[in-house]
Amino acid sequence: MNAALKNLYCLSEASLEILAKVSTALNFWYFCFKTKVQRGKINNELKNCLIEKCMNKPVFTNQSKSQICTKLQQAFPKNLANDVQKVADFVIDNDFSIHPNLVQEVIIKAEKLLIPSRIYDDNPPTAIGGLTNTQQTILNCLYLRHYNGFVRQKYLEKLIQNTQDYFVIPYIFQLLGEYVVEILAVVSEHINEKTIAHYQQFIAENPKYAQQTQSRMTSYWDAYYRTQSPDLKHYIGYKIFKTLKTKS
Question: Which domain of life does the UniProt lineage start with (predicted)?
Answer without folding.
Answer: Bacteria
